[in-house]
Amino acid sequence: MDRTAVIAAFVFVWIPMALIAAGAAEVKLPPPSHDGRVSVEKALTERKTARKYSPDPLSLKTIAQLCWAANGNRDVDTISQATLKVIPSAMAVYPLNVLVISGSGTVNGLEPGVYRYDPARHQLDTITKGDQRKSITDACFNQDWIGRAPAVFVITGAPKKTKTMTDRFGVDFAVMEAGNSGQNILMQASALGLKTNSVAGFSHADLSRTLGLSKDIRPLLMVTVGK
Ligand SMILES: Cc1cc2nc3c(=O)[nH]c(=O)nc-3n(C[C@H](O)[C@H](O)[C@H](O)COP(=O)(O)O)c2cc1C
Questions:
Q1: For a disulfide at 128, which of 58, 114, 213, 215, Cβ 3.0-4.6 Å?
Q2: Which residues line ligand 1 (CB under 6 A)?
């Protein structure tokens, strides 16, 4: 086999086979719906905190819709060519990332693990495999109901990105934007008839360690979702 054929075999055969064997590193998500039948008023009225969920799994389509609501891209501005997003961002810096944590059999079509939502590709990138919900619960001062939620969303921020005039803006802007993103998850979930809870009662250090976050990334807000 000549050199080109060996490289081609490596790229097109061996790497995809290795990825399949290891479990897909990237999970393509079904396209999000941009329309719905539930009014904003109804979604607001129906939302309330729930700490008990049915063991019924969520669908990958639901996870896709919630990811898009949390941090999705809309389209490209025809004049500036900037990507427009479903959440606003101070100075359009966009310091947030959304992580999804699933358990064993809690989301159809998704292996247990920790994933990062990639808005540009509308896909999940694997961070860690395996059910991490027990460690997440421990990091949340043993709020054990969190470990029974079919899906946990973690909104993280990079305050350094928003650091402009003072440190205060860096952290504050990221936290404010996490609030916008979390509220979008709550509203979208409510419109889909799902139960949610916002969680900020966690140890930053423990949660960061469990999620494998680098030092300049902070976990800001979690949202649990289930039926
Ligand atoms: C920033 C924030 C952090 C919260 N953290 C927790 C938490 O760690 N654990 C929990 O059980 N509920 C948590 N909650 C949920 C509140 O307890 C709940 O929203 C409140 O009791 C009002 O109830 P309602 O959401 O049903 O209106 C949090 C809510 C917010 C907004």
A1: 114
A2: 48-49, 51, 143, 197-201
Sign of the Cα pseudo-torsion (72, 161, 129, 21, in order): positive
Q: What is the pLDDT of residues 101-158, one digit of tens each?
A: 999 999 999 999 999 999 999 999 999 999 999 999 999 999 999 999 999 999 999 9
* 179 CA to centre of ligand 1 in angstroms: 12
On the 0-12 / 13-18 / 19+ scale of CB atoms within 10 A, 145 is middle
Q: How far is the CA of 191 from the centre of ligand 1 (A)?
A: 19
Sheet holding 123-129, edge to edge: 26-28, 123-129, 113-118, 96-102, 151-157, 218-226, 195-199
Predicted TM-score of the model (pTM): 0.88
With a CB cutoff of 8 Å and minimum separation 6, the contacts of 4 are: none
pLDDT tens-digit series, residues 12-41: 444 444 443 444 699 999 999 999 999 999
